[in-house]
Write a structure and sequence with these properties.
The structure holds two protein chains of two kinds. Chain A is of the alpha/beta class. Chain A has 16 helices and 13 strands. Classes of the chains: A alpha/beta, B alpha/beta.
Amino acid sequence: MAADSALTNGADSQRLRWKYLDRILSRPGPFTDPDWEPGEAVIEGLSRAKILVIGAGGLGCEILKNLALSGFKDIHVIDMDTIDVSNLNRQFLFRHADVGKYKADVAARFVEKRVKGVKITPYCGKIQDKDEDYYMQFAMVVCGLDSIEARRWINATLVGLFNEEDPDSLKPLIDGGTEGFKGQARVVFPTMTSCIECQLDMHAPRAAVPLCTLATIPRQPQHCIEWAHIIAWEEERKDITLDTDDPEHITWLFQKALKRAQEFNISGVTYSMTQGVVKNIIPAIASTNAIVAASCCNEAFKLATNSNPFLGIPETDNYMMYTGDESIYTYTFQHIKKPDCPVCGNLAKNLEVDSKSTLQEFIDSLAERPEAQLKKPTIRTEAKSLYYQSPPALEEQTRPNLSKKLSELVSDGEEVAIQDPAFQIAFKFKLVFKK
Amino acid sequence: MTGTTPPILQGPTSKEKKYDRQLRLWAASGQAALEESHILLINSGPGVVGVETLKNLVLPGIGNFTILDSTIVSEEDLGVNFFLEEEQLGGFRAEHTCNLLKELNPDVQGSYITERIESFLLKADALKPYTLILVTAPIAPELLSKLSANAETSAIPTFYIHCTGFYSHFSIHLPPAFPIVDTHPDPETTTDLRLLAPWPELSQYTAEKTSGLMEMNHHDHGHVPYLCLLLYYLEEWKKTHDGQVPQNYKEKTAFRQTVSQGARTDNAEGGEENYDEAVAAVLKSLNPAELKSSVKEVFDASECKLLTADSPDFWIIANAIWSFYVARGALPLPGSVPDMKAQSADYVQLQNVYKSKARADLSEVLQRVRGLEKKLGKTKTAEEKEVELFCKNAAHIKLVRGRPFHVVQPGKGVKWEDRAKAAVQGLTNPESLILIYIAFLAFDIFTSTHAADALGGAAKIPGETDAEADAEKVTGIAFKIIDDLIKEAGTVVEDPDYSEAKSKAAEFVQEIVRAGGAELHNIAALTGGLVSQEVIKVITKQYVPVDNTCIFDGVRSKTSVLRF
């Protein structure tokens, strides 16, 4: 039989290749919609669907492979990064000889070569380079990113893209993330179900160590490394921009940290730890990437074909949480959309503040608050501008406000709009004074 | 003095660079175990899940893998298997998947065997070179029985994996005693401060640091380690409570109030961080140390109680720690101290108080270990490093009792034995995926009793041609499994639960048969991720593996782990 099929020419042999997939798509199942008509039209629809993959790293490599072998034929991929040697333990589309090349390029070429008939269009750059028209062309977007900021950006963009009068403007967002043996896969139907911003507090940033601890009373090896990173470098090598990929820079920080640790009798500073702290390295392995990426692609496949129910149908589960370090545990649930979500809701979100703290302190706290995570906020009320990061003239004009107490600037419960250069929308918050 | 030599001033090796992101999880010891392993994949069916599993093991650098597969590469392979190319049509699937997998990591050795499994297994010692075996369905029951028997006698961990359509499951046969010391518990659960039973050095340290607490200047008062604050206020509390520490929730809340009132608010910050830390720690730090049931299980095991000259080191150390526990009323101290607001020197001194006690406990355990070894006449003694790791993790060690997975036999029913009662409960539990597992068992029984053609060679896969007729037959088999299970458990499941379980089982069967043995790449990739993760845990003896069956439902995106 194998020999026969190898000899068959043209389209028949091409289709024979997809025998397994076609079987599933040609038969109804017990959970498919009674109105679903399996067969040609479904298969045809899948091969015409244009799908965008954001990220060609650990998850992205898996996602591209999975989509290509799930019957998607028109795949686009965006990634701005180049290949590093530490990627090779999981990013299986890259070889040692590819180190330094663009990930999106190498990944696209590899999968195109391996899976005949699939077209993969790479873009080596930032997602922010592209406009609404670009995103409008896709049926859905699958994200395999390691940055919360990029996720928030694409989420806000897709929410903004939706126009009630045009059903084609609804772009489902499927997002995967991993950390060590843990991960999650989630599906967002912009404006209809809970979005990435609604779920922001589930991914709280790690609390920063107070500066005074670093400067005067270090206790942990990490404190010594942070001291070298934040304080010593500023003092001694101010004119050189720190490049965390430069081994000479890491070695310098490591030795500084080591010396400081010895002064304080603190043990445990290593090169590897220095790298980990300075680059904020998150452990990553092939198996977790495989699980999370395949889960995302399984949802994309079901969504594109209706061959079974998918996550994200309003009022049903939209989030799968995965933990693999102690046995295997998944929790699949419906994350509820927040009416006061700054991106997809229409109510301002309550933010509890101390009326005695200064505007500067409030601004600093925004970076760390799980529900805000804004690093360079510009703040205004309906009536006045409280602080502008730029342009310089406005910054100078509003700078005196930084030292004023919040109670002097806003009233209890007043609404403020906060903008941040990382996002194209304004976040609405209601400042409620702590009692 | 911290007692450690400074690390060598040089960057990471090229291997450390490549494996950096995983070494942060399983360290050099786990990596060394991976590099010593040799994994055999016995591949069958569309064969994707096995290859995807290997992909996730070749990347992190297992030492060696071998693929046993006599299948010839056909067109349909190319639409589902990423590790095959067009030019390889007509060639051996084992050879080409092996070669393309090897490209992923030049440090991994790979080989292939194209012999049929029937004759391969006839050879004596055929399975001997391997440290772990992966078997994918479909496979004839008599062959799976042989592999299961091998797992039993040779103690080689063996995985049976089944992946079809939107569902998959895998079962692990581990040795009857599979102990894990390095379980990597959640760091939040590992703090062990012994505040209810401070030893003299800790009490003395506390007395020094809290001496004149009320008269201290703001700076000093705000830098007393919270641990000392708790010990100090506990002593105060005991003075008015018959020498007793807070016993219940109510008393602990009252005690927390006392601590909280000790904080100064007339300073610049309007509060004190060390007091905040102390207040936050009250409820979780004042519980008497109790052994986790999983640790008790280790101490109660017959292997721990009845040592012989052949006892593995694990059991000798476990026995020594048990006798330490009986004598001292506590496990050896792990010796780590969480970060807390304190002056650098005070903190380092506190760390040393804990480290010294941990070292003293270790040396006592070590002495007990050496005593046992001598008594047993052991020539090879346990490494001190191993004893140290055991002492550090004593509260979190884990013993997995490996057991054979189900191998269906034509004409014989499925036996659940001591798991029957638990399995019946699963039938009516909406979170349990046992009914999918039963559908897979029914699939296996169908293939073992139906031949693809009159020649009686290859098995017939349900749904390959006539999905409806096959689904009906497989459903009948599944219903019989359910009824037999209920009977074996000696119980009854009343309606409507009974009918509901059966109608659900019928749906799962229908969904499985719909695929007709086809693998969907996504489900194979996901299952390959799960299986490879478990292989890594088993080889490195780190983290806690699945015991013993995992089921994945790709329709609802859920997993369930069950023990059969």
